[in-house]
Design a protein that fits this description.
Two copies of one chain form a homodimer. Chain A is about 30% helix and about 25% strand. Chain A is of the alpha+beta class. Chain A has two domains: about 20-110, OB fold (Dihydrolipoamide Acetyltransferase, E2P) (Beta Barrel); about 135-190 and about 205-445, BirA Bifunctional Protein, domain 2 (2-Layer Sandwich). In chain A, the strands form four sheets. In chain A, strands 6-10-11-18-17-16-13-12 form an eight-stranded mixed beta sheet. In chain A, strands 1-2-3-5-4 form a five-stranded mixed β-barrel. A three-stranded antiparallel beta sheet of chain A has the order 7-9-8, with no helix packed on it. In chain A, helix 5 (about 140-160) crosses helix 7. The first copy, chain A, is elongated. At the A-B interface, helix 1, strand 1, helix 5, strand 6 and strand 7 of A face helix 1, strand 1, helix 5, strand 6 and strand 7 of B.
Chain lengths: ~450, ~450
């Protein structure tokens, strides 16, 4: 009976919307008007003898609108109920809100059976909420994360526009493995003759005339576009079939990647720092924002060699690390975190890694045998962004690729970029989900992504 | 020898950038200054006895900057050469440009052997350029398309922000086929034991614990997010393993999808029209823009039933169509194009299709046996966007899904959205590549996408 209580016939529903147009709660809070209609969800309700109060949220703002109701109106309401409410907007007599809606007219759009509703006060642990990704945006915490993501995206667009970057859409399906790590997902056309549950076991797909993979980075394609457009960027999904089931890894994640004609690694680091601070300024109320915005000083920049010195000294004195530290080895996650959390107590750039640790495309400083590259390390997260100047000399690039045993034919198009009007250029990639996790001080990446994809987890 | 002619040692290169900072040509044209340094590509060069002229482009603007050079400087230059040029910026004496750069100092960054360079005046057909996607952004036509795409994306972001829509990132890898058309790509982890060339033939991947597909639409996930955030949108890659090798199909394409709490199909159509006109206003110099912006009148809206009447009358009179027209059948591409090109001579909305032609999630008007949905048809392209109100009643939705023989367990999460605080809601999807093809009057979708993916084509 309940689910039919306030459903409408087609006619009613068609005329309902015309009776009074709903206003976003955000608008009402920003510029109050004398009367209003809102369509929203009840986040909580307090029923007293003569009056009831409901906290209404329509997603437009993290601030709820308090509604003042009669006990009769409130009978049908509990957490999760969706309603359309009309009334007068008055200065609130209580604390915690500037205005409140004194409801004259109320329509229940959708009931919510509180006995069955999984979003309960008693269990809102992140681990529990991860099991109901389709419902967890209804919690204030998660909705705040999604609104922060929105603001960061918007600010990235406006900031990079100001810097003359063009937004581009490189391909998601590729035929190359940019990072050469071999952790790519394969894309194929399901064989029509096999049932769905054994998809993947059919003959090799030949849809593209060659194997298709999901992109691990858009960099190589961005380089092609930068060779014509000068400055390009994208915010795009990237993929790793990495069997690392940690709080810092996802199989599908969004990366902000930019590529430009440039010849200075220091300039690239400036760009990354300024971009991040610009984005943070759009969400000044996040846990980490105040500290970042209060500090006008440039984030520290040290060479890889210096980082190793610091880590070796720390290890000699305090045996801090479980993995070994030595020149020529990659920094492990614990080393990266120590540099940011303990040594710098701020984001820190580590640059000029040994060339042999880095992919073929990075520009080398021959004398030092280092690559002109950097990683940006931040507290709690470790690597947040990485970038480099790219090898723009055809001869040098070919030599490096031959040394690495790569198939030059497969990269003929990439070599062409150095063959015809090559320029010094470079770029960076910034893990967008990691950025959000860092700024919101969220421990697990799965808790900043609406529908996380990771090892053995693609529910919904 | 040539390729080494003007390469720099590490030291030179590191100091080069500091000598003089390049300014984007767009900036110079917008607000001229007395002297400037630009880094750009030579688009063409005219060498005379005492003076030479080069058209320089750095991607920031479709307008070139004319450089005035000495014959000595010009010796090293031809189409495709990349340079850094410094000099004074003076009012141009010639026609076609307001300012020109009188070059004092010139560095060749990268030569371009014109004998080998594939971008030649003699063959710039779209079909030829499609074979060199990594170089074709260097043509003025294609770079213009990419700049138009950028402007449309930027305007979508600002316009939808004004409308209180939040930008979200739904998943690309899904476990469901939203449209039920079965043309999904399968995602799997390549078997480590098989060589790369037979990827796909290994055992079924169990990376996600269930089959993984590439999303054909983000709608179902957007619905979950709209049920908390009210208004959400995304611009995301979507995929179809459709073996239609036509000029209007791609295996990978970007879709702008939006979902909101709303109860009026007419309102949804308003939203789509206003969004498109807002985007067009950001690129007023495209072939179609002037006509669209000059017309303040609302685009025509007709029911499917009326569309069939018109098509039948046309067919009876002139035998225009090769496919049959009858009530209850889907409109074919030629029918859609005729409605927009011949009947309306403008974009046209066709709404209220027979429910049985449309997917399970669309709201039905029981009395008329129609779905509350629309397609937006435009000249030359046909379907550009489609949208509907969604069935928000749990009982009705379940019944429809059972009738369609769907697995309700797999969609339990989707049904939950109607179980807990359901609201009337709806949304639309707009083919972003088709929009660009339409506005730029480009015949083949492959020619508006940087690296198109289609049947047997994923070069680069």
């Amino acid at each position: 009976m309940r689910s039919g209580l306030s459903r409408f016939c087609d006619h009613c529903r068609r005329t309902l919307g015309r009776r009074s147009k709903s206003t976003a709660i955000k608008r009402l809070l920003d510029s109050p008007q004398s009367s209003a209609t809102v369509t929203a969800w009840v986040r909580s309700v307090r029923k007293q003898k003569r009056v009831a109060f409901a906290e209404l949220n329509d997603g437009s703002s993290s601030t709820n609108l308090q509604a003042v109701l009669t006990p009769e109106h409130a009978v049908q309401l509990n957490t999760g109920t969706s309603i359309t409410a009309s009334g007068s907007l008055v200065r609130s007599q209580g604390t915690g809100q500037s205005v409140e809606l004194q409801v004259d007219d109320l329509i229940v759009l959708g009931h919510c059976d509180l006995d069955e509703y999984p979003i309960q006060k008693k269990d809102t642990s992140m681990a529990f909420l991860r099991k109901i990704p389709h419902l967890r945006p209804r919690t204030a915490t998660f909705a705040d994360v999604l609104r922060a993501r929105h603001r960061l995206v918007q600010r990235a667009h406006t900031f990079l526009e100001e810097q003359d970057y063009l937004h581009v859409h490189p391909p998601v399906i590729t035929s190359s493995d940019c990072e050469g790590a071999g952790q790519v997902f394969s894309v194929s056309e399901p064989s029509k003759s096999t049932p769905t549950d054994v998809i993947g076991s059919g003959p090799p797909s030949n849809f593209f005339g060659r194997p298709g993979f999901l992109s691990v980075s858009t960099q190589l394609h961005l380089e092609a576009l930068a060779a014509s457009l000068g400055r390009v960027w994208t915010l795009a999904p990237t993929f790793r079939a990495e069997r690392s089931d940690t709080s810092r890894h996802l199989a599908e994640f969004w990366m902000l990647e930019a590529e430009s004609v440039c010849d200075s690694l220091q300039g690239l680091m400036d760009d990354v720092e300024q971009l991040i601070l610009a984005m943070v300024s759009a969400v000044p109320d996040l846990p980490l924002s105040p500290a970042l915005l209060a500090k006008p000083a440039r984030w520290p920049r040290i060479t890889y060699a210096r980082a190793i010195e610091l880590l070796v000294a720390e290890q000699d004195q305090k045996q801090t690390f479980s993995t070994s530290v030595k020149f020529g080895s990659d920094l492990s996650s614990e080393h990266e975190k120590w540099l940011a959390e303990v040594h710098a107590r701020s984001p820190i750039f580590v640059h000029d890694y040994p060339a042999e640790l880095k992919p073929f495309y990075m520009k080398r400083l021959e004398a030092a045998q280092t690559a002109e590259c950097f990683d940006l390390l931040v507290p709690h997260i470790g690597e947040l962004a990485g970038g480099s100047l790219r090898e723009d000399d055809l001869g040098r690039l070919q030599l490096r690729m031959e040394q690495d045993g790569m198939n030059l034919d497969a990269y003929a198009w990439y070599l062409d970029l150095r063959r015809y009007g090559s320029t010094p250029h470079g770029g960076f990639g910034l893990g967008f989900d990691r950025l959000i996790a860092w700024l919101t001080d969220t421990a697990n990446l799965r808790d900043v992504v609406a529908f996380p994809r990771s090892l053995e987890a693609s529910r919904c």
